[in-house]
Amino acid sequence: MDITSLGGISGTTPQSVTNAGNNLQAALAxxxxxxxxxxxxxxxxxxxxxxxxxxxxxxxxxxxAQALSLTQVASGGIEQIQGALGQLQSLAAQAASPTLNANxxxxxxxxxxxxxxxxxxxxxxxxxxxxxxxxxxxxxxxxLSLNSLLGQEAGSSDNTLSxxxxxxxxxxxxxxxxxxxxGANQALTAxxxxxxxxxxxxxxxxxxxxxxxxxxxxxDSAVTNQQAAQSSLSDTDFAAASTQTSLANVxxxxxxxxxAQANKLNPALLxxxx
Length: 274
What we know:
mainly alpha, CATH 1.20.1330.10, rod-shaped
């Protein structure tokens, strides 16, 4: 019996096995690319929606990551300013001592002004991706907004971060001079207030970072769920194609066995007839 005539026995031909194998390969390719079965219109439509939603969520995730990096840069600048304020406070405390002469206070004041200039430099140059963070740019209407970062994923309530200028002019309310006892005492008061303000800003940055981390975790979880939903469409197609291939192989192998048995019987029958 010719193998091409096996279809008459089982309804399965070599071509049907090949077709089943091709379907299985296509389903496997869909899994690799996360694509839906092309012959399922509903699945294609659902997959397109899921892909669009996943792309949007990935964009939001990127926005949140960028914002977190920006706040980390700002926080680093704040830490430097806090350290500089501590040095200024120490110099002012020394200059306030009544035991110092004018020459010594002048020397202390020179150091004081150099450090104060460094604070202004930090406030004016600390930036992320071209965006200044400590010069007052991120305040008022330009404050960081969680809802702006989330876009269509935003909730009904918003969370914002406003960072006022951290320059000495803003922190001290004007220039300071510790070359006199009165000036040093005034500086101590101004620096104490500045430290409180900077500490408050640092706390606000930390709180906003926690909000960003929480939002980022939610978005990443949503992305994982969307990808799992896309994968399930491809997995279902693969399972069906795998079953079809297995069935075709079983039927084809059974047909071969029947044909082989028939080929063995034919000579015996001919002998009987003869």
